[in-house]
Amino acid sequence: MQKILTTKLLVTLIGQGYRYCLSRTTSILGEDADICITLLPVKRAPSLKNLPERFDTYFKISEEPRQMAMGIDETIVLVDLSEINIFVEVSL
């Protein structure tokens, strides 16, 4: 399940103990965006040398993702919740 990144979702993730987000950036063809950033929350700091194959980099959850939640022109930012166990309200 993927959700659009919001500040409310970030607060929920931080409250659940997630401190970092793996990040993957892809080009898309859309009316509202040219770029899609997909974040996967993780609790421990990943090694930049040993990132999972499908990810480009990672961020501290309280830094770049907080800025992304405010919106980036021509960019959609999604959070991949399919691989984590988190209580997420439907309204997020």
From TrEMBL:
It comes from the Bacteria. This is Uncharacterized protein.
